[in-house]
Amino acid sequence: MNKKLTQRFHELKVQLEALEQTQKRVSSAFGTTDTIDNDLFTNWKVKVRNLLVTACGEDSQHFKAFVKGEESNYSMESQLSILKRVGAIFDATKEDYEGGYLNSLKQLVQAEVFESELEQAEELLSSGYKLASAVIAGVVLETALRDICTDNEIPHGSLNVMNAQLAKQGIYSKLQQKQVTAIADIRNSAAHGKPEQFSEQDVKNMIRDIEAFLLSYMA
Asked: I want to staple 167 with a disulfide (CB 3.0 to 4.6 A). Which of 47, 96, 177, 214 is the partner?
């Protein structure tokens, strides 16, 4: 789960609660109605829509429900009524996200690609092509690091540079950083055609560790 998105859900929940506190009853020629700060409400809705597109995707039921919920169900429906409706949709999305029940289409497709490429690496290894196997597995890891950096607004760089930045930002531990460094060393040796620097068992462990990494940080 992305830490920045989790934090953003929390921030917008706090803003929602503050927005609810602006509720007041006003009278007009059309009668008495409950209202809220419309400027703050508009500001909040824009930020929530942006978050839902990022976390869920424009085609997700959560985003579509939120956009639909912004529409008035009847003439003269109060902004407070709309706030309660979209607030409930936001809360449901936040709960699903924090529970790990949301995956964007991109994440699902990427997971399938990674799985396929690691299976290819395993097949190559079993056929005695440890160099090719290590290179392919290394590409999977580097692509995963690049995606995690994108999600956390960290600039792309070499595998080792991204690994260092992810650990520095607290995305994962120093221990995980060391493991990624060890995997990168095998990948680099393979890419430079130096099979004497690692064994088939090293590549087997490499693939296993990359699979574990993906489960921990790409789910």
From this structure: 177
Convert the pLDDT of each residue in 63-77 to its tens digit: 999 999 999 888 778
Contact by Cβ (8 Å): 82, 70: yes
Each as own residue / partner, the long-range contacts of residues 73-78 (CB below 8 Å, 24 or more positions apart, any chain) are: 76/30, 76/33, 78/33, 78/34, 78/35
pTM of the model: 0.55
Q: CA-to-CA distance for 36 and 20, rounded, in angstroms?
A: 7
DSSP H helical ranges for 38-104: 38-55, 61-69, 79-98
Enclosing H/E stretch for 155: none
Give mean pLDDT, residues 122-143. Answer: 93
pLDDT in tens, 195-214: 999 999 999 999 999 999 98
